[in-house]
Automatic annotation (TrEMBL):
<dbReference type="Pfam" id="PF01717">
    <property type="entry name" value="Meth_synt_2"/>
</dbReference>
<keyword id="KW-0489">Methyltransferase</keyword>
<feature type="domain" description="Cobalamin-independent methionine synthase MetE C-terminal/archaeal">
    <location>
        <begin position="8"/>
        <end position="338"/>
    </location>
</feature>
<dbReference type="InterPro" id="IPR002629">
    <property type="entry name" value="Met_Synth_C/arc"/>
</dbReference>
<dbReference type="GO" id="GO:0003871">
    <property type="term" value="F:5-methyltetrahydropteroyltriglutamate-homocysteine S-methyltransferase activity"/>
</dbReference>
<keyword id="KW-0808">Transferase</keyword>
<dbReference type="GO" id="GO:0032259">
    <property type="term" value="P:methylation"/>
</dbReference>
<dbReference type="InterPro" id="IPR038071">
    <property type="entry name" value="UROD/MetE-like_sf"/>
</dbReference>
<protein>
    <submittedName>
        <fullName>5-methyltetrahydropteroyltriglutamate--homocysteine S-methyltransferase</fullName>
        <ecNumber>2.1.1.14</ecNumber>
    </submittedName>
</protein>
Length: 364
């Protein structure tokens, strides 16, 4: 059994929000309960969630992102110089539109006194003998999604440099709070996977290759000072909102950068259907210590995959990367936003059990 994250059986991070939290959020918005009362309800539900994760057999436990509305905007809006705001339109997800929220940059980006540190401490204190895993958006998400409303940043380079400095502080702050397993979630890479995505980048006056190299530099320099005993992974996502997606295409276009140029300890990759292409891009993995977590079990729908088919795909991936470097997880979280994907809580836990059972068969 693996003793350091990521584990043979792992999870991306988010879980379906309990109805009690959804109702409490509405009550808070309507002024019926206080922020302290809402947090107490979140605390109770997170404790219940962590106990369920332990009971089911996971080695790493998360808080399910229960305190967040979005997987990324809540954190990014808490950076110094950035703020969460009501946008004019939502994001498009394969035919449906999200709520009209966003994050904008109003001043110099920095990291200080971020509320997510206290959120992590709560998880850490209830994790017990299990590893507390915490997820935050990649710094690239502010480059990718942030609306710039300041003259401080006339190009991406200046913003990128300040993001690096801010995230170096963030990594140290989470470490000081006890975090040894931090994950960066990132949808920006998916824009390079399809020809339509590449064309949009060119239309914005960018060179896809140079932009990808910038994203890689931002990641690598952001985590360059991480302590030796801290694991930092990255989940590369193709969009996840109410079981819908935004991007398709193989990792091939920038596979040399993703698999040969990022200094993260592990990559969580979506491979749950044909939208992700084959495993051939894994040939660019050039480090024996880079763990590849195969997201072969979809979190978007409740039907369970044929376990023999999943095992066959793991075997196929092992033709490019040693089986010892591979792990298994759902392809994404179950609720990247508080709305959640279109499956029941029972189906969600069946999915996690499915991952555990298959992994136990493969890595005996």
């Amino acid at each position: 059994m693996s003793t350091r994250a990521p584990f043979r059986t792992d999870i991306v991070g988010s879980f379906l929000r309990p109805e009690r939290i959804k109702q409490a959020r509405l009550q808070k918005e309507n002024g019926e309960i206080t922020a302290e009362q809402l947090r107490a309800i979140e605390d109770t539900e997170i404790i219940r969630l962590v106990e369920k994760q332990k009971e089911i057999g996971l080695q790493a436990v998360t808080d399910g992102e229960f305190r967040r509305a979005w997987w990324h905007f809540d954190f990014l809006g808490g950076l110094v110089g950035a703020e969460f705001y009501e946008a004019e339109t939502g994001l498009q997800f394969n035919g449906i539109t999200t709520r009209a929220h966003g994050v904008r940059v109003k001043g110099k980006i920095d990291f200080d006194n971020h509320p997510f540190i206290e959120d992590y401490k709560f998880l850490h204190n209830i994790a017990g003998d299990h590893v507390a895993k915490f997820t935050i958006p990649s710094p690239n998400m502010l480059l990718y999604r942030g609306k710039i409303e300041t003259d401080l940043y006339t190009n991406k380079i200046g913003l990128a440099n300040d993001l690096i400095a801010a995230y170096q502080k963030a990594v140290q702050a989470f470490y000081d709070a006890g975090c040894r397993y931090l994950q960066l979630d990132d949808t920006s890479w998916a824009s390079f996977f399809s020809e339509s995505g590449l064309e949009k980048i060119r239309e914005q006056g960018e060179s896809p290759r140079k932009l990808a190299e910038l994203y890689a530099r931002v990641i690598n320099e952001s985590i360059a000072k991480k302590p030796e005993d801290m694991t930092i992974t990255m989940h590369i996502c193709r969009g996840n909102f109410q079981s819908m997606f935004t991007s398709s295409g193989s990792y091939e276009n920038i596979s040399d950068i993703i698999f040969g140029g990022l200094d993260v300890d592990s990559l969580f990759l979506e491979f749950d259907d044909e939208r992700s292409g084959g495993f051939e891009p894994l040939r660019h993995v050039n480090r024996s210590d880079l763990k590849i977590v195969l997201g072969l079990i979809t979190s978007k729908f409740g039907d369970l995959e044929n376990p023999e088919n999943v095992k066959a795909r793991i075997k196929e991936a092992s033709e490019y990367v040693s089986l010892d470097q591979l792990c298994l997880s759902p392809q994404c979280g179950f609720a990247s936003t508080e709305e959640g994907n279109k499956l029941t809580e029972e189906q969600q836990w069946d999915k996690v059990r499915h991952v555990i059972n298959i992994a136990q068969d493969v890595w005996k």
